[in-house]
């Protein structure tokens, strides 16, 4: 009996994610074995790329979200739609409480991993920080 197509696609997607995760873990493990100069160069380049992309995505997200809120407000003012703000506020409060609970429950583990990486790869981390700030400034 053949598997449905969506299960094959799901398994293929999981395999791709696992392969990418393994590649990233190997690349991070190899960074600590390189020279200080190479770590600074890699850190600066990856930091600049991350900062630049973050700013570009942030601008697009801000325009999209802000534009959507403005359009909803205009539509509400003109009488095209009626927004139940009490219901929205209750949902937002529930979601923010859930996010805060998840974040505080998992943050120490994530933060500890980052701290260990930064401590063991200080040249890369310094280069990344400088490159990130440069990438933000250059966008």
Describe the structure.
This protein folds into two domains: 1-31; 36-138, no CATH class. The chain starts with a helix and ends with a helix. The chain has four helices and no strands. The chain is 88% helix and 0% strand. By secondary structure, it is mostly helical.
Detail the topology: elements first, then pairings:
Elements: H1 5-31, H2 36-78, H3 85-120, H4 122-138
Helix pairs in contact: 2-4
The gist of it:
The chain is an all-alpha fold. It has helices spanning 5-31, 36-78, 85-120, 122-138. It holds the Pfam family FUN14.
Number of domains as seen in the coordinates: 2
Number of helices: 4
The total beta strand count reads 0
The low-confidence parts are none
How much of the sequence lies in strands comes to under 5%
Average pLDDT metric: 81
The helix-strand sequence is HHHH
Query: Helix amount, in percent?
Result: over 70%
Membrane topology: Multi-pass membrane protein
GO biological process, one term: autophagy of mitochondrion
GO cellular component, one term: mitochondrial outer membrane
Keywords: Membrane, Transmembrane, Transmembrane helix
């Amino acid at each position: 009996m053949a598997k449905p197509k969506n299960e094959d696609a799901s398994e293929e997607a999981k395999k791709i994610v696992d392969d990418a995760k393994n590649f990233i873990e190997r690349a991070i493990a190899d960074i600590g074995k390189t020279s200080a100069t190479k770590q600074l160069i890699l850190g600066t380049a990856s930091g600049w790329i991350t900062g630049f992309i973050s700013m570009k995505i942030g601008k697009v997200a801000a325009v999209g979200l802000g534009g959507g809120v403005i359009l909803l407000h205009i539509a509400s003012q003109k009488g095209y739609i009626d927004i139940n703000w009490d219901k929205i506020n209750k949902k937002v409060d529930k979601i923010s409480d859930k996010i805060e609970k998840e974040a505080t429950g998992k943050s120490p583990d994530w933060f500890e991993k980052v701290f260990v990486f930064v401590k063991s790869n200080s040249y890369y981390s310094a280069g990344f920080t400088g490159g990130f700030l440069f990438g933000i400034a250059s966008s």
